[in-house]
Amino acid sequence: MRKLLEISHSICALRMAQVTNVKLSNGKEMPLIGLGTWKSKPGQVLEAVKVAIDIGYRHIDCALAYQNETEVGQAIKAKIDDKTIKREDIFVTSKLWNTFHRREKEGAELFPKNEKGEMLTENIDFKETWKGMEEVYEKGLVKSIGLSNFNSEQINTILSICKVKPVVLQVECHPYLNQNKLIELCAKHDIAVTAYSPLGSPDRPWVKPDEPSVMADPRIKQLAEKYNKSPAQILLRFNVQRKVIVIPKSVTEVI
């Protein structure tokens, strides 16, 4: 599990520096390094999460759309049952997919169409969705609520209408997409930032054939050689030293 082992080395270093958690604006603490499970095939996640917990991970990122929440839950339960962890030790992040953004509506009502069959996407109001998130939070069904893939304008819109402020924003973030302005805005409003795809996203569907890979970037390789680290560790450090939470994915178990 090369990536998992490399990331575990970073966890050890961070523990020594006593900066393993980020304190959220609601007082909860979120581990600075977590395990991402996006694009993990069914059957892979169960063992990956178990191994991750065994080597020290206490933050697991999943989503309904990833179709792996059941496996994540099974892995966490197994580690609780064998006394490796307690439930309160683990921070689990999940996300509400776009087709569930309307409260008390389902099926065709979620995305109404005009007479031509075209989606009326402008009718989908994320402010209404946030109100639903606030209700879930106020009922104690979740410990924290946040945003994913929101731009500055959308974040400001939520801040203008919210009763419960988002504590975290999750976006793609790495040296090729540093998100500096977005991170600055979030810092101003005490919103933590989580970076998904911190090692780049060369397998995304819209990637161009000649697009460079951040993992193979000569400058990253040069830094890795200089500091006797792997490119993955350099990329993780890029975000971690800015107190940006990272959730790299790994499902392999052996080198």
UniProtKB/TrEMBL annotation:
GO molecular function per UniProt: oxidoreductase activity
Site label Lowers pKa of active site Tyr, positions: K95
Positions annotated as active site in the UniProt record: Y66 (proton donor)
Alphabetical list of Gene3D superfamilies matching this protein: NADP-dependent oxidoreductase domain
Domain named NADP-dependent oxidoreductase: residues: 33-104, 124-251
Protein name stated in the entry: Aldo-keto reductase family 1 member A1
